[in-house]
């Protein structure tokens, strides 16, 4: 793992299997109200559980979430803020081409809303984002018949999309993220290698595109504050780019290329880049059975602070960690993975190893609303879009 680093240890304080069938993977976690978390898993279930005990809540399991011969749940996010008299809401997307909205207090009563991508054969949905401030939910599809679509709905109006973008990507759309302060700005990432940024108030797709970044098959991408974009590929290549604001006529700084994180941080795989109140690369080693949170600091320019790494010893054993949730309020880290378990971690204040420096502060971060050759340029004109690339073969998200 991280070489020549000081490790501050987080110790496992609990674990739970959520009563999953043997051999199940847990894909992702998200918050669900003040006292619970939710998870989706490879058995096509949605499960809600207590965040302290990691035990299922009453009526906390929905099986066959996205049913049918082409079914299977793919994404999960919390719908923050009340849009109705329902309790905390959860949104899921699936291989059946639908987005479903669930009242977390009564999940076993069925979805409260169903959003469709079309009337005929619907492509699988591989990415999902929600912005309750503008009553918007958006999903990205896999490539079908040479088309990968971004579909937008009004949360108050289930049914057919209110808008679609169908030309900006020519392969599976694997990532979606709204800007943290500009409700009209959306980022998408795809296995075609591109990260696109849109002004979603514009229906004409070419006019809506604000920026195109050519990075490589996108595993995760998102915003760091208001002015920075990060991209992480399926083969662990990481870069940071300026968000080009077309309203400001200024010379943007060059992107920062970190290269393959497996070499840079001596790990086996990257889980995600965790952002908000801090920036951390979450990287794991199945060989050493560890998971590290490596701080990324911005001064004088973005770089790894390998003197203040948080380590989760044991991690999920020899299995890959799929998702993480950091809760600074309770000073707790939650992880889930391919071993079919959720684990809870807290600081071991008495344990610092390989340390010649002062201990780092507890990470004060949260996850997003609930994540090659470079052409040398951080963005390109719409007319110079990249040719379709082969999909990453090392890792398939579902």
Structure description:
- InterPro entries: WD40/YVTN_repeat-like_dom_sf, WD40_repeat_dom_sf, WD40_rpt, WDR89.
- This is WD domain-containing protein.
- Residues 358-386 have a biased composition (Basic and acidic residues).
- This protein has 398 residues and is mainly beta.
- It has one domain (7-371): Methylamine Dehydrogenase, Chain H.
- It contains 2 helices and 29 strands.
- It has helices spanning 205-208, 261-264, and strands at 7-16, 26-31, 36-41, 45-50, 56-62, 73-79, 89-94, 98-103, 113-116, 125-131, 136-141, 150-154, 163-165, 173-178, 185-190, 194-199, 209-214, 218-224, 228-233, 237-242, 256-260, 269-275, 279-285, 290-297, 303-304, 309-313, 321-327, 332-337, 342-353.
- The strands form 6 sheets. Strands 1, 22, 23, 24, 25, 26, 27, 28 and 29 form a 9-stranded mixed sheet that branches.
- The chain is globular, with a radius of gyration of 20 Å.
- 48% of the residues are buried.
Inertia-based shape? globular
| Fraction in beta strands | over 45%
Instruction: Please write the CATH class name.
Output: Mainly Beta
Q: Which value, in Å, is the CA radius of gyration?
A: 20 Å
Structural class: mainly beta
What distance lies between the first and last C-alpha atoms, to the nearest angstrom? 26 Å
Mean pLDDT across every amino acid position: 87
Protein name: WD domain-containing protein
Region (Disordered): 354-398
Biased composition (Basic residues): 387-398
Biased composition (Basic and acidic residues): 358-386
